């Protein structure tokens, strides 16, 4: 059954990266950010995926309970320090989406 979201509900943050240096260096720095972010209130899920054909392209998808939780996390001084380090390794483009429908939970395997 689909969940109908609204502005007060779950949001999905999508961030696409193009790495200028070594992908392994980028992943190490990203792992430190992920450790910080997954400890923040309101986080529902956080992933980093690498492009199948281009090892210098990545996408980060983070699901949050609401916009306020995401904004509080990115306003933290520790987050800003991590971001500065990441920006030295990659360019990024980010977007925020309001969840409108959900068909599978994270613990449900797709068939």
What keywords describe this structure?
111 residues; alpha+beta; 4-stranded antiparallel beta sheet; 3 helices; 4 strands; globular
Question: Brief overview, please?
Answer:
The protein is an alpha+beta fold.
Question: Could you please describe the fold and organization of this structure?
Answer:
- The protein has 111 residues and is α+β, with helices and mostly antiparallel strands.
- Helix content is 31%, strand content 31%.
- It has 3 helices and 4 strands; from the N terminus they run βαββααβ.
- Helix 1 (23-37) runs antiparallel to helix 3.
- The chain is globular, with a radius of gyration of 15 Å.
- The two termini are 16 Å apart.
- The model is unreliable at 1-7 (pLDDT under 50).
* Order of strands in the sheet with most strands: 2-3-1-4
Net shape: globular
Low-confidence stretches: 1-7
Structural class: alpha+beta
Question: What is the count of DSSP helices, taking H or I runs of 4+ residues?
Answer: 3
Q: What's the end-to-end separation, in Å?
A: 16 Å
Radius of gyration (CA) equals 15 Å
State the major sheet.
Answer: 4 strands, antiparallel
Kindly state the mean pLDDT as a whole number?
Answer: 88
Percent strand: 25-35%
Helix content: 25-40%
- Counting DSSP E segments of at least 2 residues, the number of strands comes to 4
Along the chain, the helix and strand elements come as: EHEEHHE
